[in-house]
Every structure is written in structure tokens, then in C-alpha cells.
């Protein structure tokens, strides 16, 4: 476990703001002048090398104007080239978040500090020329040519005028059946990228970004729309590639057999000076030549053998032992190489001399980091695929290494594997009516309806690195490159630095100053450890699965309910995304960051629809990520993405959040209560729709708030304010649960007289969104409505009924909602209410509440396939809500927690009060 820390001075500067979570406006400017802006390495130590880095930094309101220049200093106070751009602004127009980038480095600084001032330029700045039909990106001796159209993402890369890389393109192998059939021939078709748009998003001097959009084409058919971003950094030899595609095929006839990106590598060197490299585990390297000079019956001489092993030019062939020199043509030249990783548990390397000849098994291992190289002393190409063994089946290929040009392919979906099969997993089980479908929901918790469990419109993002090299790198250098592919280095602000700014609502740094707080912190850490280990033990890996976790546990089978309807993949249910991100914010743990990053990548792509009738909505939890028929904005929620975006300045996540700003319109096509409509529901297809305040409207709020602060466009603020005022004007405000909403204006137009209290309304980011949003906009009537809901949700039934003047039903998740009570207590300065919130959090008498003590144990032997650990009561819903409640109550009412925990020991043992 790795965590970040600030200097003693930085910690002391932040300490005063930690307890209350609010920085007084009058103090902001003074604090900003001395605000510690140290950056640390996510993994605690500098990497051996990196290919350029990007990250985000928050700033207090009113400290820096939008055009402020920033510089970077290393640990010795020496300037480091820096590129800066705004990510978000406060309502007064001052900077809230900035994005920063530094050049590639083979000797990274141990620390960086961001200060106000003019940045220095890099020695080899990135420059971009826009020419007729292509961009020309220059980084020192390397010139990359990026066409505006055609099939090539990159046409070539040259070094000092010599071409070391040819065209780079996307490839897809599609077949019309999932497997061979006895009744019909299997037809396979190759598709290649076709670029339709090329946009220069940044042009240097430290970083240049080009966005390419297009589809995969073969003949008259185009499908699988893609977005590819190319990132070039000063001083670098590589381009970072972020590749996203959308599945828009027919899952019953479009089966992807292979999906990848391939690059050509011109080869000029003699066969014995051409080299193939595959990275292995723990810094290992499989390294061989196309034509080996070692192991022969006759020895060419030690200098020749040593040079070839090192990947360097051998001495003149004329000086070689003639018994070898005159028979070089009789040594087989190996032209094709493959490293295949079909599962997370193993990979194999094979090679052959060429097409039409047999493959020879070469080597193998467990978890390959995903790096391949082909080339020689005249140059070469290396390619790395992130999450190689985690997101398979994956494969790395070299083809034609004995010819004048080789092709290197990173397969995101390996052709070795069975074809990608996205069909629904059962035949409907006779559930042809809503009545039968609701019966199915009762037994498997799956919301099924024919035609709704479609993958049409889901997406997937992969990250690659592509090097254009002047010669074969040393073995150590290749291992360092592989390490950067498998564990990308990151610069991040320390928790105390982020905490010192009013961002992301209510959270605090870990606090072990009392026995109860220590116990809570220990449990928080233990739950993070548990899920980190469950990912490994349960093999929650794979192309469509990596990043997600399971929803519920079957203690009888000692197995998560991977095959039971709505109990399988979590799909962001009850906000595990936020639990992980707030856990990272306060601890700085590298393992937690990577769990949260993987979940954000997955849930924002795979669990959501990006085109089609469900565009902008996500899918409820289920056996397949897209399989459940309930499509809702609570899953596509921008609240689950924004922390990652601001910490990393990731453009793809920015695109996905921006695409949600109009997603309330999807409610005109997707009625969330379509199986159980209520009397008086709006007619389908019109501008007036039924919308829940929390699961629907609050999800839209997160997107609008983010777009407002990213662009400064006040129409999104105005839409938020319009909705707030209309909701606050309803008779029972939040206790209606939802209302009739006009997608044209953003207003709630009615909600009737009924009381509707859903335990789900506030647990999909609504609490976190409001905690931040209400610091940005001032609508007193709505603020009072929200605090009313927070104060009264968990109140005794008789008191709530007296307050509302009507009957209330069962209210679930009281422990998770303790943080709402704590929010109200904090803002109302109400000590008795704070004690009630503490009781709600510490009480463990409800079936859905989570225990403070762990019951983690090991299960082995014939009871399970592999030795695993379990906590019999573990549930992602429970863990997520308990974790968020713990984090937020610790931030809002820490003294009340201590008082209740000390005066009532049963509160922490599960015994009834």
C-alpha cells in the first residue's frame, strides 16, 4: 500500500481547514498565496522513466484568474518545462482546476512544485504544422505524420529523415457466426479504420493532442465508430494512444474475432541484426534475433554472440568464422512471433519462420505486462497495451520480421480467443408479459423485457503506447518501458493539498485520534483491502468486465452471485465508484486509485449507452453489463466520473460527461417506470416526463454543474437554478420523491399531493453533488428543502408523519442515510441532531446495515475451486454506503461520533440499544 504525503509545512497549512470542510472567503486569497502545491508520485517513488505526464490541480476560489501562468520546479528548485490549461472555474471566473503536463523524461524528478510564473520551454518542444491533408508533429529528431482522412491513424514516423515507422491503423476481424457450424460456412471479414474527422486539440509546446474519429470499413459497410486520441510529449519517442469504440452491430450476427491496432516497421538491417522483444513479469524479457548466432554447432565468436544478445550491431561479417559466415543462409530466419494472453492466469510465446509453416512453442509465463518490440540498429517499433493481462483475451504479434517490412499488432481482443459473443444469456424464460417479468424480478432480481438487454451502443476504451525508436533499446530500457505500460506513472496532489480547497464536498483526512475513529479508519482500510484482493482471487478481469465488481455474495457457494440476475455485476449500484474515489482522496493509496480508475473507465463506457434509443443512460446491475432492461441516468451519472477527470485531465472522460448534458431528453423515450406506471403519469413521447429527484434529476445536475464550471456557460447554471426553484415550490418538496418534469425548460411542473420516499433517491451521488453544488449556487428556498430532506429522512416515523401531514412507508438504508442527517446537523449547528446521526451510523440492527468489525476468513480445500477469502456479510451496496457514510460523518460530526460511541458501547457491537 502506497500513500502520498505533503511536507510538514503543507500539512500544517491545511490542518485548520480539515475539521469544518469550509475555507472562509476572506481567507482564500491569503491562503492561496502560500498554498502548498507540491506534487508526489502516486507510487511513492519516481519511475525509472516516463513518456510525458498530465494531471490536474485544484485552486481556492478567487486566488488565480483564468489566464494565470504557472511554472514547475523540481526538488532542487530547477525549472521543469510545463504546459497549463484551465479545466474549471469558480462562479467568480477564477481558476478552480488547471491541467498540467511535463515532457517525457528518462530521469524523472523526485518531486515537483507548481508556482505562479512563466514556464520554461522544453529543449525539444512539440510543434505541429497543419498542412493540406495532414498534421506534421515534430518532437526533436522525430516527425510524425497524421493524416486528416484515410485508413491510417499515423502515416509515418521519421527520425533524422529516416523512416522508422510506417502506417498505423485499426483492424477488426468480424465473423457471422460465433463458431464453426456443421450447417453453414463461417464467413470472416477484415475491417480497417476510416478517418472522417481529425481535430488538433492542443499544439504544444509540452504536449500536443490530436483527436481522430471514424469507423471501421470493409467494402460498403462501415461500423464500430471510434474515437482515437494521439498524445505527443516533448522529449519523447512515443505517442500515447487512447482508443475508444462503440458497438453498433447486431449481436446475433456480428461477432468480433479480433480487434486491434497495427503498425508497420521498415527493416533494413541484416537478419542477424533484427531483434524481437516481449516483456515478461518482474522486469523479465524474452529477447531473440530473427536469425540467431548463438547456440549453433559452429561458433561465430564471442563478440558476435555478445553483440546479438545485447541487440547491437555485430562486428563485420567478413571477420566472422567462415564456417558460420558462409552458411548464414542455412540458419532459419524466424519471421512471425506471437505472445498470447488468453486469460489472466497465463501467456505463451510462439514463433514460426513464416506463413505456411508450423508454429514452435518458445516460452510462457503468467502475467505479461504487454510490450513488444521489433527492429534493429537502424530503428524499430515498440508497442505497449495497458491492462494487457487484466483486460484480455489479448495478444501481441510480429509478422514479416524476415521481410523488408514487419507489422506489429496489439490485439485488444485476441484472434486466438473465441469470437466476442454479446448475445443475451437466456431465451426469456417465457416472460412475455409485464406480470411474468415482475415475477422474474421477484426471484432473480433481474428486470427482463425482450429487446432491452441489448449491447447496441455500449463502448470500450483502451490505452496504448507506440514508440518510434532509432535503435534497439537495451534490455533494461525495454523493461523500464514495460513497467510504464503495466503501471503508468502518475503525478498527483497529496490528500491534504486537495483537502485544503473546497472541492468534492464533505470529506476529511484519516483521523485516528480517538479509539472509535481508529476503529472506523481500520474498517475503511480493511474493506479497501478486501475488494482489492477479491479482484485478484475472483478473477474479475476480462475485456468487458475489468474494472467492475460484483453486487452480492452467496455464502453457501462461497461465491459472488455472478449468475443470478440483478445480483451479479454491480454497474455502479449504490455508488462504489464514489466510495473508491473518496477513499483515494483522503488516503492517496495507489492501489485504490487504480481500482477507482479501472471502475471509472469501465462504468462510463461499458455500463452506459453512447448511441441509440438509450443514449445517455446506463444499465442496472446484472449478469451482463448491458443485460438488465432497466436503463437509468443514475448509472451514467457524471458524479461518478468528475473526480477522475479533475485529477487526471482525461479528455475521454471529459467527452463522456459532456455527452450527458442533454440526457434528460432520453426520458421522453425511456420510461423508467414503464412496467408499473402510476395514475397520472405523463403520456409517453412528450416533453413532460416523470423524473425522480435523486436517481434522475440529481444525475443530470452533476453533468450540468460540471459543464458550467468547465465552460463558464451560465445556461447550465440557470437550468440548475430553474429546477431548484421549481422543486422547492412543490408542496412536499423532496418528500414527493419525484415529479412531472419539462425537459424543454428544466422545471418540475407538478408532483401531486402524495408522499413518496425512496431509499435510492439520495444514494447515487445526490449527496456528494449537493454538497458541492450548494457551495456554488445560492437558492435559499432549495437549500432549505434539501436540508429538510436530510434532517427528516431518518427521523422516527411518527415525527416525520407529523411534519409531513401524511403517512410514510418503510425507509431503507438508514445507516447510509446517516450522512444526510449529519449534513443537516452540521449546517444547522444542531448538536442533538448530530448525536442522532451518530446513532444512525453506528447502529447495526438493520439487515442492510454494515458491521464495524470484520469477519474476514479464508476458505480452502474442496469447498472452493481456489483458495479465497470472504466476509460472509459482504455486499457492494453495503460496503459502498457504509464507506461513504463513514467518510462523511467523520468529516461532518466527528465529536458526536465519539460521544455516542463512548456513551453507548452497543453502538459499535451490533447489540440493540
Automatic annotation (TrEMBL):
Residues 1-29 form the signal peptide. Residues 126-483 form the PcRGLX/YetA-like central beta-sandwich domain. It comes from the Bacteria. Keywords: Signal. Residues 488-897 form the PcRGLX/YetA-like C-terminal alpha/alpha toroid domain. Residues 37-115 form the PcRGLX/YetA-like N-terminal RIFT barrel domain. This is Tat pathway signal sequence domain protein.
Amino acid at each position: 500500500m502506497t500513500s502520498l504525503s505533503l511536507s510538514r509545512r503543507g500539512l500544517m497549512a491545511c490542518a485548520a481547514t480539515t475539521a469544518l470542510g469550509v475555507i472562509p472567503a476572506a481567507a482564500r486569497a491569503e491562503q492561496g498565496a502560500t498554498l502548498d502545491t507540491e506534487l508526489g508520485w502516486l507510487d511513492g517513488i519516481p519511475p525509472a522513466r516516463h513518456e510525458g505526464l498530465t494531471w490536474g490541480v485544484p485552486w481556492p476560489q478567487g486566488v488565480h484568474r483564468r489566464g494565470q501562468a504557472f511554472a514547475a520546479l523540481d526538488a532542487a528548485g530547477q525549472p521543469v518545462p510545463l504546459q497549463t490549461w484551465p479545466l474549471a472555474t469558480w462562479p467568480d471566473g477564477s481558476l478552480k482546476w488547471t491541467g498540467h503536463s511535463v515532457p517525457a523524461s528518462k530521469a524523472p524528478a523526485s518531486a515537483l512544485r507548481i508556482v505562479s510564473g512563466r514556464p520554461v520551454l522544453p529543449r525539444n518542444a512539440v510543434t505541429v504544422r497543419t498542412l493540406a491533408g495532414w498534421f506534421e508533429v515534430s518532437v526533436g529528431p522525430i516527425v510524425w505524420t497524421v493524416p486528416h482522412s484515410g485508413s491510417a491513424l499515423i502515416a509515418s514516423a521519421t527520425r533524422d529523415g529516416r523512416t522508422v515507422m510506417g502506417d498505423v491503423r485499426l483492424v477488426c476481424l468480424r465473423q457471422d457466426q460465433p463458431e464453426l457450424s456443421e450447417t453453414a460456412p463461417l464467413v470472416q471479414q477484415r475491417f480497417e479504420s476510416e478517418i472522417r474527422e481529425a481535430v488538433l486539440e492542443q499544439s504544444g509546446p509540452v504536449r500536443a493532442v490530436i483527436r481522430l474519429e471514424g469507423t471501421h470499413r470493409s467494402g460498403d459497410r462501415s461500423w464500430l465508430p471510434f474515437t482515437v486520441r494521439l498524445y505527443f510529449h516533448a522529449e519523447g519517442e512515443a505517442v500515447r494512444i487512447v482508443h475508444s469504440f462503440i458497438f453498433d452491430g447486431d449481436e446475433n450476427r456480428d461477432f468480433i474475432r479480433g480487434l486491434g491496432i497495427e503498425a508497420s516497421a521498415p527493416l533494413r538491417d541484416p537478419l542477424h541484426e533484427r531483434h524481437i522483444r516481449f516483456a515478461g513479469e518482474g522486469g523479465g524479457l524474452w529477447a531473440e534475433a530473427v536469425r540467431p548466432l548463438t547456440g549453433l554447432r559452429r561458433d561465430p565468436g564471442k563478440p558476435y554472440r555478445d553483440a546479438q544478445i545485447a541487440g547491437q550491431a555485430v562486428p563485420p561479417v567478413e571477420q566472422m568464422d567462415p564456417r558460420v559466415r558462409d552458411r548464414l543462409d542455412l540458419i532459419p530466419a524466424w519471421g512471425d512471433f506471437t505472445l498470447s494472453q488468453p486469460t489472466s492466469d497465463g501467456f505463451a510465446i510462439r514463433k514460426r519462420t513464416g506463413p505456411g509453416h508450423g508454429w514452435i512453442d518458445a516460452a510462457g509465463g503468467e502475467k505479461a505486462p504487454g510490450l513488444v518490440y521489433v527492429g534493429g540498429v537502424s530503428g524499430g517499433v515498440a508497442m505497449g497495451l495497458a491492462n494487457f493481462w487484466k483486460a484480455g483475451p489479448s495478444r501481441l504479434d510480429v509478422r514479416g520480421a524476415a521481410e523488408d517490412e514487419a507489422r506489429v499488432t496489439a490485439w485488444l481482443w485476441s484472434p486466438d480467443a473465441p469470437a466476442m459473443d454479446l448475445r443475451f444469456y437466456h431465451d426469456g424464460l417465457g416472460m412475455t408479459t409485464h406480470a411474468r417479468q415482475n415475477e422474474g424480478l421477484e426471484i432473480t432480481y433481474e428486470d427482463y423485457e425482450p429487446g432491452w438487454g441489448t449491447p447496441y451502443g455500449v463502448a470500450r476504451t483502451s490505452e496504448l503506447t507506440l514508440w518510434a525508436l532509432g535503435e534497439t533499446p537495451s534490455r533494461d530500457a525495454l523493461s523500464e518501458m514495460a513497467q510504464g505500460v503495466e503501471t503508468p506513472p502518475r503525478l498527483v496532489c497529496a490528500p491534504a493539498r486537495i483537502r485544503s480547497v473546497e472541492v468534492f464536498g464533505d470529506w476529511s483526512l484519516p483521523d485516528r485520534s480517538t479509539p472509535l475513529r481508529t476503529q472506523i479508519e481500520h474498517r475503511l482500510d480493511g474493506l479497501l483491502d478486501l475488494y482489492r484482493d477479491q479482484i485478484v482471487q475472483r478473477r474479475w478481469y476480462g475485456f468487458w468486465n475489468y474494472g467492475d465488481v460484483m453486487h452480492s455474495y452467496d455464502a453457501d457457494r462461497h461465491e459472488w452471485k455472478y449468475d443470478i440476475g440483478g445480483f451479479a455485476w454491480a454497474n455502479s449500484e449504490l455508488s462504489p465508484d464514489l466510495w473508491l474515489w473518496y477513499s483515494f482522496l483522503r488516503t492517496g493509496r495507489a492501489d485504490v486509485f487504480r481500482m477507482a480508475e479501472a471502475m471509472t473507465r469501465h462504468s462510463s463506457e461499458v455500463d452506459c449507452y453512447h448511441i441509440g434509443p438509450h443514449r445517455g443512460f446506463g444499465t442496472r446491475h446484472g449478469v451482463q453489463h448491458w443485460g438488465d432492461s432497466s436503463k437509468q441516468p443514475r448509472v451514467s451519472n457524471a458524479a461518478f466520473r468528475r473526480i477522475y477527470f479533475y485529477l487526471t485531465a482525461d479528455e475521454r472522460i471529459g467527452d463522456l460527461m459532456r455527452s450527458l448534458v442533454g440526457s434528460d431528453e432520453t426520458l421522453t423515450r425511456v420510461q423508467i417506470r414503464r412496467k408499473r406506471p402510476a395514475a397520472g403519469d405523463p403520456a409517453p413521447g412528450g416533453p413532460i416526463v416523470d423524473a425522480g429527484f435523486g436517481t434522475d434529476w440529481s444525475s443530470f445536475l452533476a453533468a450540468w454543474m460540471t459543464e458550467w464550471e468547465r465552460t463558464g456557460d451560465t445556461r447550465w447554471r440557470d437550468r440548475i437554478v430553474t429546477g431548484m426553484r421549481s422543486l422547492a415550490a412543490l408542496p412536499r418538496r423532496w418528500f414527493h420523491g419525484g415529479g412531472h418534469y419539462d425537459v424543454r425548460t428544466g422545471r418540475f411542473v407538478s408532483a401531486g399531493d402524495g408522499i413518496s420516499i425512496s431509499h435510492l433517491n439520495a444514494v447515487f451521488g445526490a449527496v456528494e453533488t449537493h454538497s458541492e453544488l450548494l457551495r456554488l449556487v445560492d437558492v435559499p428556498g432549495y437549500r432549505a428543502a434539501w436540508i429538510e430532506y436530510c434532517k427528516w429522512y431518518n427521523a422516527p416515523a411518527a415525527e416525520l408523519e407529523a411534519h409531513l401531514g401524511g403517512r410514510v412507508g418503510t425507509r431503507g438504508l438508514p445507516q447510509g442515510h446517516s450522512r444526510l442527517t449529519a449534513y443537516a446537523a452540521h449546517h444547522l449547528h444542531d448538536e442533538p441532531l448530530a448525536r442522532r446521526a451518530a446513532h444512525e451510523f453506528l447502529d447495526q440492527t438493520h439487515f442492510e446495515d454494515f458491521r464495524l468489525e470484520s469477519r474476514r476468513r479464508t476458505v480452502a480445500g474442496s469447498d472452493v475451486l481456489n483458495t479465497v477469502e470472504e466476509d460472509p456479510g459482504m455486499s457492494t451496496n453495503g460496503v459502498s454506503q457504509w464507506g461513504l457514510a463513514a467518510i462523511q460523518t467523520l468529516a461532518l460530526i466527528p465529536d458526536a461520533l465519539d460521544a455516542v460511541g463512548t456513551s453507548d458501547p452497543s453502538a459499535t457491537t451490533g447489540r440493540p440499544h
